[in-house]
Amino acid sequence: MATPCFPTLSAAADAAQAIARLHAALAIARDADPDAQPVDASVRAAAYAAARRLGFIDADAQCLAAAWERRCRALPFDPHDWPDDPADFDLSIPSASFAPCPAHLGLYAVLPDADWIGRMARAGVPTLQLRFKHTDRDRIAQEVRAAVAAVRGTPARLFINDHWREAIAAGAYGVHLGQEDLDALTPADVQQLRASGLRLGISTHGYAEMQRAWSFGPSYLALGAVFPTTLKAMPTAPQGPARLAHYARLARALPTVAIGGIGLAELPAVAASGVGSFAVVRALTAAADPEAAARALMQAWQRLRTDTATP
């Protein structure tokens, strides 16, 4: 299994500069002969090979190679910057977007049933997700309605994982979809979901999935898995906090949520990445005192955000 590409942010910067210097040299050669099209091909090939050596999966390496090529075409070219601008990845403003949500969603608790939703809403957790796995549609609809009722009278924002039709019917705040859920959506489904006014969050695990999610005009992007997690099989190796920082920078026009293996010990690295919020599962559901765990997470995040914002 591939390892996270960079163990530290400084290592990420060093690697970025080493790759960029090679590309800068190719760009200079291109400028000497503007008709030398093979140079752009060399830029893409070199960037792809470098990205693969850094542990990126094929789809993400392809995205990075195209981003480096676009960056090399733009003058003046800064060889010290890793591609992290939407223009580098050809990300334009979608023609239609989902309803917005706050840039900072705070502690985002992913929970298994309506009882947990109500418990954490009463504990003051600001953002909640019902991840209820069941095959009976009536049972799913019942649980979604119960979760919506459980947050009523609290300031908590409730997202429903997967079950977007039931979320619309119950009047939830939003819905969260994975990449496989996007596969199942028809254009008519997307139109219905957008017209409902629900906020849409989308799971992403790298550059290629971020590009795809961006095209939907989502309310937020979930970025992960940052650290190892045993809760589900992931399509990529843990991304690590350094990649998270690059993803958060690229997606800075949208709210972002870090997810995957996050607890109190991981919060400083997550906060340093610049991501807007963080999601947890076992840090609450496996805690001896979930309410106390929630308070500790929220207080630590507030303190870290304050420290990060202080000049």
Automatic annotation (TrEMBL):
Entry superkingdom: Bacteria
Ranges where the Thiamine phosphate synthase/TenI domain occurs: 114-284
Biological process terms in GO annotation: thiamine biosynthetic process
Keyword RNA-binding: no
Record keywords: Magnesium, Metal-binding, Thiamine biosynthesis, Transferase
GO molecular function: metal ion binding; thiamine-phosphate diphosphorylase activity
Keyword Cell wall biogenesis/degradation: no
EC number: 2.5.1.3
Cellular component aspect of the GO annotation: cytoplasm
SUPFAM superfamilies found in the cross-reference section: Thiamin phosphate synthase
Gene3D superfamilies linked: Aldolase class I (3.20.20.70)
Pathway per the UniProt entry: Cofactor biosynthesis; thiamine diphosphate biosynthesis
One Pfam family of this chain: TMP-TENI
Protein name stated in the entry: Thiamine-phosphate synthase
Organism: Tepidimonas charontis
Gene: thiE
